[in-house]
Design brief:
The chain is an alpha/beta fold. It has 9 helices and 6 strands, in the order E-H-H-H-H-H-E-H-E-H-E-H-E-E-H. It folds into 2 domains: 148 residues, HAD superfamily/HAD-like (Rossmann fold); 78 residues, Putative phosphatase, domain 2 (DNA polymerase, domain 1, Orthogonal Bundle). Helix 4 packs parallel to helix 6.
């Protein structure tokens, strides 16, 4: 029986990655690092879940001799970069740079009307989640979701299923009672590892990923409603 829908955020609820890329490059400029990520580079870096994790991976790739003795300074710089990037992203979202993908709001509204619970399971920061959903849904956005898992309370990134396991526990539901929504291979692997049927809505950054094991792959959620989800889920 389908009782809840669990949504990833970046790339799934909204095409956020272009704005995230812009925000990272802004942070690099502010910090004076001389780095600039291209779309191609960022697409590859999205194989690594988590903004700070991407930063560290890139730093090690451009400076293979990075030593553990520098770990404190590296950690401080990454934290500063991520704070600058997050502030830029939040401001961009508040100024209307990001919108929910087709069908997302309609599906959420229908699900709530029919008594299904909604939840968020993401590796992004709570600030990013709040910025997007406050802009898209309104100041009462938090009341729409029974459970929210994010980087603050589920720090082990996808494809590890930690965030989904936390959300399921908070919902008080079995994986068999829920459907997850993702846009990436890492997200799919995390959801499937938690036992969740998963609907994939790829975007320009993830269309090349391997989505073997997905319940369905659809361009967006504009043609998806609760009745169709129940049909897919029951099969």
């Amino acid at each position: 029986m389908l009782n809840a829908l669990i949504f990833d955020v970046d790339g799934t609820l909204a095409d956020t990655e272009s704005v995230h890329l812009e925000a990272f490059n802004h942070a690099f400029k502010v910090e004076g690092l001389g780095w600039h990520w291209t779309v191609e580079q960022y697409t590859r870096l999205l194989d690594i879940s988590g903004g700070k994790e991407r930063l560290l991976h890139h730093w090690r790739s451009v400076d293979p001799d990075l030593k553990e003795v520098d770990a404190g300074a590296v950690r401080d710089t990454i934290h500063r970069l991520h704070e600058t990037k997050t502030a830029y992203y939040e401001n961009a979202v508040n100024n209307g740079a990001v919108h929910l993908r087709p069908g997302v709001l309609a599906l959420m509204s229908e699900a709530r009307r029919l008594g299904l619970q909604l939840a968020i399971a993401t590796t992004t920061s709570p600030v990013n989640v709040a910025a997007l959903l406050r802009s898209a849904i309104g100041t009462d956005w938090r009341s729409h979701f029974l459970a929210i898992g994010d980087a603050s309370n589920a720090p082990i990134k996808k494809p590890n299923p930690q965030v989904y396991m936390k959300v399921l526990a908070e919902l008080g539901l079995r994986a068999a009672d829920c459907v997850a929504f993702e846009d990436s291979a890492n997200g799919l692997r995390a959801a499937r590892a938690a036992g969740l049927d998963t609907v994939i809505t790829p975007n320009g950054f993830t269309a090349h990923h391997d989505f073997t094991g997905a319940l369905r792959i659809v361009p967006d959620l504009s043609g998806v409603n609760v009745a169709r989800l129940k049909e897919w889920h029951n099969r």
